[in-house]
Amino acid sequence: MTFTAYDAPWWPFLFILLAGWLPTDIWRFLGVYFAGHVREDSAFLVLARTLATALVAAVIAKLVLYPEGALAGSPLALRLSAMALGFLVYVTMGRKVYRGVIAGEVLLVGYLWLSQHVPH
Q1: Euclidean distance between CA atoms 77 and 89, whole angstroms
Q2: At what angle do helices 43-65 and 76-92 cross, to 10 degrees?
Q3: Which among 57, 56, 100 is positioned nearest to 82, based on CA atoms?
Q4: Could you read off the pLDDT of 54-67 as tens digits, one per residue?
């Protein structure tokens, strides 16, 4: 079964439902079901949090070190600086994730915009 298996207008939507939404939501539903039955300091929950944090860190590292698309044209030093600024803002301004994300984005997008609009 592939995305292009059928030539019907409804097929891409069914494919997304079966291949994308259903497999991930099963784990979400199981997580909600078992969340009330697992102690917060249990080894299983500590492992789950550790794995989730590691996955997020891996995605961030991939975006910064091996970007694709428009981000690939930006200098590595800029991407590292935006990440560092975002983390610094997160730590110093109340540990709010959105503040860190916005700070990193402002630096990244601002630099890229200036590099295209300011004559060299």
Answers
A1: 18
A2: 140
A3: 100
A4: 999 999 999 999 99
